[in-house]
């Protein structure tokens, strides 16, 4: 997990400690995995809602290598930074994210 943490996000760690001291759970966030139809049988898998403390470019690079597909990080006006992977990678990305410890299975919401 440490290799995917953005170097500028070191200030987030004290926030976690505050929640632990207060005995509260961290705020839950949901990550959405969607599929979009392009032309013909071509599809795009989009991943929205990853924490901003992760370096998304490193995650895309690892996913491209693991799934043998192309991918990029795009800026969406409504959702912020979104991962885009070519092909139907919904199951692959969900398994990879939980296996690598970036998200918990209950935080994933798969659409489509």
From TrEMBL:
PROSITE patterns: SUI1. It comes from Heteropsis elisi. InterPro entries: SUI1, SUI1_dom_sf, SUI1_euk. This is Protein translation factor SUI1-like protein. The keyword Transmembrane helix does not apply. Residues 31-101 form the SUI1 domain. Keywords: Protein biosynthesis. Belongs to the SUI1 family. It comes from the Eukaryota. GO terms for molecular function: translation initiation factor activity.
């Amino acid at each position: 997990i440490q290799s995917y943490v953005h170097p500028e996000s070191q200030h987030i760690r004290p926030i976690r400690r505050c929640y632990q001291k207060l005995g509260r759970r961290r705020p839950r966030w949901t990550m959405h995995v969607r599929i979009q139809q392009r032309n013909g049988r071509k599809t795009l898998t989009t991943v929205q809602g990853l924490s901003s403390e992760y370096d998304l470019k490193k995650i895309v690079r690892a996913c491209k290598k693991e799934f043998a597909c192309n991918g990029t990080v795009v800026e969406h006006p409504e959702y912020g930074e979104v991962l885009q992977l070519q092909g139907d990678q919904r199951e692959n990305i969900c398994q990879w994210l939980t296996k690598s410890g970036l998200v918990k299975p209950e935080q994933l919401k798969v659409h489509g």
